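Example 5.3 — KaiB domain-containing protein
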Amino acid sequence: MNEVKTSENKDEVWVLRLYVAGQTPRSLTAFANLKKICEEHLAGKYRIEVIDLTKNPQLARVDQILAVPTLIRRLPPPMRKIIGDLSNTERVLVGLNLRRED
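Solution (predicted structure tokens):
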């Protein structure tokens, strides 16, 4: 059975940065999937920053973005990176370290 990892700090805020390239269907799907996952697993304890690389391409260098959409977990450390539209909820939860891999 998968176990949800709990934080030692109950007031900890998760900072998630979603890199996209415009308002494409894939970008919109990634944001919707991320929002749903956050509401279900991090309710009230997260902040999503959406970075549109069509408007700010230089920001791709900061987190070494090679593909979009890409999700970066900035806080809590360590930084984690997930590429894709985030439709595989189980993979996203494991990638964010919210659930352990079996």
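Remark. Strands lie at 14-20, 46-52, 70-75, 80-83.
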